[in-house]
Amino acid sequence: MAADKRGNKTVRDLVLSLVVLSVVVAVIYLFVPHDSKADPVKPISYSVELGQARRDAPFKVAGPEGLSAQWRATSVDYNAADPHKVSWHIGFVDPEQQYVAVEQSNDVPADFIAAVTLNAHRDGSRTVTVGGQVWERWTGKRYTALVRKEQGVTTIVLGTGPDSQLTQMAAALQERSGQ
Questions:
Q1: Banded pLDDT at 70 (limits 50, 70, 90)
Q2: Beta bridge pairs of residue 157
Q3: Cα–Cα distance between 78 and 179 in angstroms, integer?
Q4: Alpha-helix residue ranges (DSSP H) falling in the chain
Q5: How many CB atoms within 10 Å of residue 57?
Q6: Dihedral sign (CA 175, 45, 34, 27)
Q7: Phi, psi of 5 (to 5 degrees)
Q8: Which pLDDT value is given to residue 15?
Q9: Collapsing DSSP states into helix, strand and coil, what is residue 79?
Q10: What are the C-alpha distances in Å from 119 to residues 111, 138, 151, 157, 179?
Q11: What DSSP state is assigned to residue 60?
Q12: pLDDT exceeds cutoff 60 at 56
């Protein structure tokens, strides 16, 4: 008989525990914001990092100027830990809600291009001229890219959006150093 009483207490304790947990979960749900209509993109400022990169990098650093407010910066990184592989990155969500990024480095061009484009390949001999500069067109499974190789620096504009958005970003780039 003692075993039956003990078994009943265990079930009763389990039910009470579930009730208490349900109340806690309900309270947490009520107090945690969950606006499903909110924009998931959290824009960031990149002016400090751009200024630092332009002062420190061994190449002229490209930063966009004149883009509309619909272009929202979402990521930025300047890495100068290895002087032979200095890199600059700035990522955006464009007006069409697609990803567009600017990548620059003094790393070996082939290695850098493969790394940031996720092994995209040259699109034949196709090129795009933007602002008097010739960019090679590259395509891959994930990104389309515009690539410009110069002495000491490779600049890449890549993204998931249409060519027009990549071209618009490339046209907005201003390269400066020492600021």
A1: very high
A2: 102, 146
A3: 15
A4: 2-31, 47-56, 109-117, 163-172
A5: 20
A6: positive
A7: -60, -45
A8: 87
A9: strand
A10: 9, 10, 22, 15, 33
A11: P
A12: yes
